[in-house]
Design goal:
This protein is mainly alpha-helical. It is about 65% helix and about 5% strand. It is built from six helices and three strands, in the order αααααβαββ. It has a three-stranded mixed β-sheet, covered by helices on one side. About 0% of the residues have low confidence.
Length: about 200
């Protein structure tokens, strides 16, 4: 009964996270980039395990036979990303923020993998080491992919494309200072249309 309750709570959390994600071009780009990055990380882990010479030689399965497992693993990682809030907008995030968020989500994913595949007799088996390296590859590929999206986003925002309309509550020196900050940093993504008790002068 407890297992069923936990599964129901987990499913409800996933459903809530999915409902919180509003589909936009940015979200579609993030999903696509993450999907590609996660499969590249899976491929890099495969090459590290069977073709790097760092581990004991075993018969390497043909990668085409790992196509379905790769899709399943990638989907699992994307669920973890979703639950970690990784599909919120990238507006206002810097490169360090992007990589840091991906790293945090990767640590959570690796921890889950370790719990699921726990083996006290061989805590650092080749498979576990490869799983850890997969997390590192995910940070590299997903971080780079998201950084590219953010750079494209910044260029579009600098041209006035994709700005979100906003209103500033109040009309005092603090509000004016906030307006100047937004105008000086267009990649924040806001276009101030006015104040609630006054219009913005052109």
């Amino acid at each position: 009964i407890k297992s069923t309750a936990k599964s129901a709570i987990f499913s409800r959390d996933i459903f809530t996270a999915i409902r919180a994600v509003k589909i936009s071009r940015e979200k579609i780009a993030l999903f696509a980039v993450d999907f590609i990055a996660l499969n590249l990380a899976y491929l890099a882990s495969y090459l590290l395990r069977y073709h790097s010479g760092l581990f004991s030689q075993t018969v390497a399965p043909e990668f085409r036979h790992l196509f379905i497992p790769s899709l399943v693993v990638s989907s699992g990682w994307m669920v973890i990303f979703l639950l970690r809030g990784m599909y919120r907008t990238l507006y206002g995030q810097g490169t360090v923020d992007i990589f840091f968020n991906v790293a945090k989500a990767s640590i959570v994913g690796i921890f889950i993998i370790f719990l699921v595949t726990i083996d006290l007799r061989r805590p650092l088996s080749p498979s576990r080491v490869v799983s850890m390296s997969c997390g590192g590859f995910i940070v590299i590929f997903a971080g780079c992919g998201r950084t590219i999206i953010r750079q494209v986003q910044r260029r579009l925002l600098a041209k006035g494309i994709g700005l979100r309309n906003a209103l500033i509550v109040g009309f005092n020196e603090r509000a004016k200072s906030f307006l100047r900050q937004i105008q000086n940093v267009p990649d924040v993504g806001y276009k101030v249309c006015g104040f609630l008790n006054g219009a913005v002068d052109d």
